[in-house]
Amino acid sequence: MDLAQLLNGLAYGALLMILSSGLAMIYGLRGVMNFAHGALYMLGAYLAYEVTQRTSFWAALVLAPLLLAAVGAALELGVFRRLQHRSHIEVGLVMFGAALIIERTIVLIWGDDTLPVKAPSALDGTANVLGTDYPAYRLLIIGVAAVMAVALVLWLKRSRTGLHIRAASHDTETAKILGIDVDRVSLVVVALGAALAGLAGVLAAPYFSVQPGMGQSILIMVLIVVVAGGVGSIGGAMVAALALGLIQTAGNVWIPSVAVLVPYLVAIAVLLWRPSGLAGKRVA
Amino acid sequence: MHKKLLAAAVPLMAVGAMTGCGSSSDSGSGGSGGDGAPLKIALIPPSGGPLAVFGKDSTTAWQFAADEANANGGVDGHKVEIVTSQTDGTPAATVRAARKATQGGARFISGVITSPENGALQQQLPSMNAISFNTFGKDDALTGKQCSANAYRTVQNTAMDVDAVAKSLEKLPATKWAIQAVDYATGRTAAKIFTAAAKQAGKQVVLTQYAPLNTTEFGSYITKIKNSGADGVFAIEFGADGVAFVNQGAQFKLFQGLKSVLGFNMVSEPLFDALGDKIEGFYNNIGYVHQLDNAKNRAFVAAWKAKNGGKDPYYVQADAYLGAQTLFEAVKKAKSVDPAKVKTALDSLSFDSIVGQVSIRPGDHQILRDSYLGQVEKQGSGLGWKVINTVPASETQPQADPSCKL
């Protein structure tokens, strides 16, 4: 695999990493798969379109995650907190319903057409990486993902809120007994998770395309990443996302006829040999 | 873990159970085939998903044709009534909606978008005593092994489109081609026919690769094309896949180094805004262009623009309008809206249409009409088509599909 293909795998894995980190955080704390995560990512991409039309892509990169954080807070207060004592299946169903509502609302507002979002002109061309011309925009995605990964892990390991998140994700009841305000922690986690989905949506807008099916199509990949990474483990999800991006790219290059099966084979293999995922129960 | 897997599976099953819910709006009452009976047409488009826009545009065109006919006293005296029933775009929901519409008196069905929906519907038509007009689904099997005595296709099928592209290959400057195709029947068939045509034209295919439907990341495929030494790309990628391929190809500067970029159903008017200037110079097969120079088309385009804010019709709207014209011509010829009589008229129908002279092939109920190769060019403030080559129906799959047993 040449350098360009290696970077292709890293870029795709980086985007999956940003998206799956948020999902893994919510899963780790609330114990339910947020099936609306793909819809939040889609909303981020459509907001990127709207903000880019009015101002610039860079403004979208800041504004869309902030707006998605507000949506995440609303989901926490309106759904997760109210249903925290209900079964996971019920919460999952509610979130699936929320996804359908969000996606349909987006179509009602922006229509069915595929919408264009241009990469910033400074990143529209290619950059030279060790003698290989490679799209500068993809390098931005890799860079943003790297910064996010370092910042998130440091925050979880070094900050007091991060400590509370790790404690609550490990054992909610014991964390409560020790005086941790789990509701507040959950509000932070769900808002941040939604913001990361929004960030991924903004970055994906010029990368893929902004269209009504984008949330559903990536959700399955992200679910595989979270399961393979370790239920609720952010670090595991990050490693799994990068690995899946690289494996998928290698599959496309070397075994194209069966490459489509690669993510599912990876998920099955991990569940068979290491059912708790690559990182097990570790949060960060 | 079991609970978690169950938690993941239950919503999916619930969605499966929820699919098929539809809503309908009825602008008329039932009818029979007698004198003065209305010509009642059921349209069954999808309400959501990436194809919903085509369902909406198809419905608009049928309503336009109905309004136009009614303003002139109906079709041979029969008032045209449109019943629209939206579905989720699944075959089961479409068949249910069709059955409900026929129970309400509609005997003519259209607006169904995808080939799987059309395929499922076609098998049920005889039991519904209804006739369908497929104006969008291009799968060859619909007029092949899945054909039905009650189903008619008024749009070119995939084989005709591929033949039109293959027969235009000599007009394109590239000599070493890479094929980037979607990994299902259409992509593989198109790649196979193109490869044979390239060989015949003295050109070379240096790479053939397939990407699964709904691929979003084309980086690895594009890198392989760049490394292949190709000076032309034949891309069979549709909808969002096509947009992603073009956008990412532009980011990789793929197209700057190529002599020809030829799309198959990849570039079309609804995507011009999304794709922008980067597709200027791209070639693509086209089934209809509003510039077609004949009296019927000029009148259609003028009337359409007058009613639609000066916007030209594009292929989905024009193909739906052609479907309506086919039905109306058959009703005039049959002098009845009785489906049996209309069917008899359709089986040997030939008429002057917005795309020139067309006829229904009796052996498989496929319409015979010209196909085109177009090139995207700047037109005014936007993009438009320049017709590079016209391939007559006699050169694109002129024989009925032998696997069709009517």
Task: Tell me what you see in this structure.
The complex is a heterodimer of chains A (284) and B (406). Chain A has 284 residues and is mostly helical. Chain A has one domain (3-215). Helices cover 73% and strands 3% of the residues of chain A. Chain A contains 11 helices and 2 strands, in the order ααααββααααααα. Chain A has helices at residues 3-30, 37-54, 57-80, 88-110, 136-158, 160-170, 172-177, 182-207, 214-229, 234-254, 262-273; strands spanning 126-129, 132-135. In chain A, a hairpin with a 2-residue loop joins strand 1 and strand 2. The longest helix of chain A is centred in the first third of the chain and has 28 residues, at 3-30. Chain A is globular. The mean pLDDT of chain A is 90. Chain B contains 12 helices and 16 strands. The relative contact order of chain B is 0.13. The model of chain B is unreliable at 1-32 (pLDDT under 50). The interface between A and B is large, with 57 and 46 residues.
How is the secondary structure organized here?
The complex is a heterodimer of chains A (284) and B (406).
Chain A (H helix, E strand, L loop, with lengths): L2 H28 L6 H18 L2 H24 L7 H23 L15 E4 L2 E4 H23 L1 H11 L1 H6 L4 H26 L6 H16 L4 H21 L7 H12 L11
Antiparallel strand pairs in A: 1-2
Helix pairs in contact in A: 1-5, 1-6, 1-8, 1-9, 1-10, 2-3, 2-4, 2-8, 2-9, 3-8, 5-6, 6-8, 9-10, 9-11
Chain B lengths: L1 H17 L4 E4 L12 E5 L8 H20 L8 E7 L4 H13 L4 E3 L4 H14 L2 E4 L16 E3 L4 H9 L9 E7 L2 H16 L3 E8 L7 H10 L3 E5 L2 H13 L8 E4 L8 H4 L7 E4 L8 H13 L7 H20 L4 H8 L3 E4 L2 E5 L6 E2 L2 E9 L2 E10 L15
Helix pairs in contact in B: 2-11, 3-4, 5-6, 11-12
Tags for this model:
heterodimer; A: 284 residues; mainly alpha; two-stranded antiparallel ribbon; 11 helices; 2 strands; B: 406 residues; alpha/beta; Rossmann fold; 7-stranded mixed sheet; 6-stranded mixed sheet; 12 helices; 16 strands; 21% strand; disordered N terminus
Q: Roughly what percent helix of chain A? A: over 70%
The major beta sheet of chain B can be summarized as: 7 strands, mixed
> Greatest chain-chain interface?
A-B, 57 and 46 residues
User: Count of DSSP helices of chain B?
Assistant: 12
How would you state the average pLDDT of chain B, rounded? 88
Q: In percent terms, what proportion of residues of chain A is strand? A: under 5%
Strand content of chain B: 15-25%
Distance between the first and last residues' Cα of chain B: 53 Å
Radius of gyration of chain B over all CA atoms, rounded = 22 Å
Work out the helicity level of chain B.
25-40%
Q: What is the number of beta strands of chain B? A: 16
CATH topology of the largest domain in chain B: Rossmann fold
Instruction: Detail the poorly predicted runs of chain A.
Output: none
